[in-house]
Amino acid sequence: MNNANTRSQLDPAAQRQATLKTLEQDPFDVLVIGGGIVGTGVARDAAMRGLRVALVEQHDFSFGTSSRSSRLLHGGLRYLAQGRIGLVHEASVEKKVVHHIAPHLADPLPFIFPTYRGNKDWVLWQLKIGVKIYDLLCGGRNLGKSTWHRPQDILRRVPGLVAVNLTGGVRYYDGFTNDSRLALDTLRSAAAQGATVINYCRYRDAKRNGHWECQVEDVLTGRTFPVRACAVVNATGPWADGLPHSTVKLRATKGIHLVVEHGRAPVTETVVMTEGKRILFMIPWGERTIIGTTDTDYQGSLDDVRADTEDVAYVLRVANLFFPNSQLTTRDVISAWAGLRPLVADPSGKPSDVSRAHEIHNPEPGWWDVAGGKLTTYRLMAEQTVDQIVRKLKKLKGTAVAVAPCRTAREPLLPPSETAGVSALTPPPFERGPVEHYVRREWAVHLDDVMVRRTSWHWYHRDAASKAAQVAEWMGELLGWPPETRQAELERYTRMWGASY
Ligand SMILES: Cc1cc2nc3c(=O)[nH]c(=O)nc-3n(C[C@H](O)[C@H](O)[C@H](O)COP(=O)(O)OP(=O)(O)OC[C@H]3O[C@@H](n4cnc5c(N)ncnc54)[C@H](O)[C@@H]3O)c2cc1C
User: Residues near ligand 1 with C-beta < 6 Å?
Assistant: First the structure.
């Protein structure tokens, strides 16, 4: 490779121009709309099978729900209580698959589920049976073996937990991940397999004329250009039902999480807190603790979802019921994120009862809608979608295509050398080095791309605003931002991510 090539490969502006040119000029087998976990999973799978793949994301990769989850790889003990064995089995197997393909982003996580006299929704003997079934549903060994515990044992493991009427509890295993890093590393894996991917490019509309011609807008310049593909996958999560050609019907529900100092909620294992049939978690996260979540119907803007005062008060109230000595207040809250569950519509029933199962539809030749599901099952959703596309591809292209079998459950996303220091469960050290990596190798365009999704520094650090000012300087040096652009980036960051509660 000559020096000019090396330079242009590392120059983000030149890289973006080259990507735009490829998108406009090359015909693709598959165009994926949406760069959340589902879209990145489809792009990776299709690229690994040898298909020509493009992915466009209207904001930043993982801007939507895939950077605002509880960060759990889980079968869903709650769904087991609802009798959804198939769903739990599917997700339990997949949590282990993610553990295998992304070990840097999947740690076994023990959960303590305490039970109390008088709580008819969560009864100890039922949970004891439930966790044993849960272990069996993994299709092999779970990430750790479940156990049953007496009250004094639970209190020893969870100091500060309310002891009145405690009847005991169970301990079981799921996994802890980093949602946006999982999406980004899945995308890096797709790109390494030849996928053409771009953020800040919005699908507008499409028409079919033998193949699909999609109108895509470069949000950074306002220019619209065509992208041609045999198959289009609508993987736009909560946006899925508003897209031209989509047949998806969604019911969006909002969930929020709070981040507090670990010292103020010093759990060493995740603690399950019940509120009627609902469960909330207190999850240890390095020097912090994550507490959530809520589940309420949502009708507001999809592009600006925030935790409001009532959400925060609800989560703090439940936490303080279970840890009465902590008396957490809004002053303890370092940050709060809010996301929308893209649930397949079922207007009846409580939000938390709506099915988390995914659906894949092919309403028009070459168009696929993928909706619902969970972070945990993203790889399976992708495999099933690409399986369907492959079956129809000969008809869509008019010629036979040699397609390799699916390998996404076996092959690691990235080699350890590609993730060390830049992608982990907790944020990277606050240094210029990782920022340079995100700008040159991970498509970071705006300040919040680095602060929020690539590093989680925004969620983790109480002094995130001053850290953002430093990151704006580093990005400014790397991207050639004049002082007014650095200022505009800081204002954009504060406008989008400033606290609202
Ligand atoms: C509070 C909460 C907690 C959760 N916790 C867990 C958990 O612990 N474990 C778990 O397994 N699952 C969890 N989930 C579910 C999981 O997070 C989601 O199912 C998953 O992230 C959805 O991914 P997605 O790719 O479908 O959607 P998204 O991540 O929202 O991605 C869709 C993308 O499409 C883009 N897009 C939209 N329109 C366009 C357009 N016109 N052109 C281009 N791009 C477009 C959006 O900008 C967005 O980035 C949780 C969800 C919530 C809300």
Answer: 33-39, 56-59, 63-66, 68-72, 74, 202-203, 235-239, 243, 255, 293, 339-342, 373-376
Torsion of CA 458, 461, 466, 471, to 10 degrees: -50
| CA angle, 54 then 58 then 61, to 5° | 70
pLDDT tens per residue across span 69-128 = 999 999 998 888 888 899 999 999 999 999 999 999 999 999 999 999 999 999 999 999
Bridge partners (DSSP) of residue 173 are: 110
pLDDT tens-digit readout, 402-455: 899 999 999 999 999 999 999 999 999 999 999 999 999 999 999 999 999 999
In this structure, the strands spanning 211-218 and 201-209 are antiparallel
- Which atom of ligand 1 approaches the CA of 60 most closely? 49
Q: Which of 267, 276, 282 is nearest to 295 (CA)?
A: 276
On the 0-12 / 13-18 / 19+ scale of CB atoms within 10 A, 347 is exposed
Q: How many A from CA of 229 to the centre of ligand 1?
A: 24
CA–centroid distance, residue 183 to ligand 1 (Å) = 10
CB of 386 within 8 A of CB of 401? Answer: no
- Cβ-in-10-Å burial (0-12, 13-18, 19+) of 252 comes to buried
Bridge partners of 232, per DSSP, are 31, 367
Q: What is the pLDDT of residues 139-180, one digit of tens each?
A: 888 999 999 999 999 999 999 999 999 999 999 999 999 999
User: Among the CATH numbers 3.40.630.30, 3.40.50.170, 3.40.50.300, 3.30.9.10, which is that of 111-174+252-346?
Assistant: 3.30.9.10
What fold, for 3-65+180-249+355-397? FAD/NAD(P)-binding domain (3.50.50)
Distance CA(252)–CA(499), nearest Å, equals: 22
What ranges do the domains of the chain cover? 3-65+180-249+355-397, 111-174+252-346, 427-497
pTM: 0.96
B/e letters for 133-162, b = 16+ CB within 10 Å, e = fewer, are: ebbebbeeebbbebeebebeebbebbeebb
Shortest-distance atom of ligand 1 to CA 374: 19
Distance 164 CA to ligand 1 centre (A): 39
Long-range CB contacts (< 8 A, 24+ apart) of 214-220? 214/31, 214/33, 216/23, 216/56, 218/20, 219/58, 219/59, 220/445
CA distance 305 to 254: 8
Determine the Cα–Cα distance for residues 348 and 142; give it in Å rounded to an integer: 34
